[in-house]
């Protein structure tokens, strides 16, 4: 799995989205299914002021990471192979 976070809180398809650039340049060319790429805004809402929602979006992404990596109370820190 590839976890992708963007320091800019913009919709995935936005011109300023690093995710869109990464998809165009290399992720779409790698043998990785789209379902294996976990992004901070997998389902961006429409017509939303993303700047105001940054804390909530961050919390949702944190929960996604913890769920995807199957952390638990005894080992709550996610482990990544590469950051």
TrEMBL record:
InterPro entries xref list: 6PGL, Glc/Gal-6P_isomerase
GO biological-process terms attached to the record: carbohydrate metabolic process
Coiled-coil ranges per UniProt: none
One protein family per Pfam: Glucosamine_iso
Taxonomy, superkingdom: Eukaryota
All residue ranges annotated as the Glucosamine/galactosamine-6-phosphate isomerase domain in the record: 2-83
Listed PANTHER family: 6-PHOSPHOGLUCONOLACTONASE (PTHR11054)
Identification of the protein by name: Glucosamine/galactosamine-6-phosphate isomerase domain-containing protein
Record organism: Phakopsora pachyrhizi (Asian soybean rust disease fungus)
């Amino acid at each position: 799995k590839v976890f992708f976070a963007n320091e800019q809180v913009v919709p995935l398809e936005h011109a300023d989205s690093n995710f869109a650039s990464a998809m165009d340049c290399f992720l779409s060319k790698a043998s990785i299914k789209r379902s294996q790429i976990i992004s901070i805004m997998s389902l961006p809402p429409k017509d939303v002021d993303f700047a105001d929602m940054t804390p909530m979006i961050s919390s949702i992404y944190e929960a996604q990471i913890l769920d995807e990596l199957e952390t638990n109370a005894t080992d709550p820190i996610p482990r990544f192979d590469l950051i």
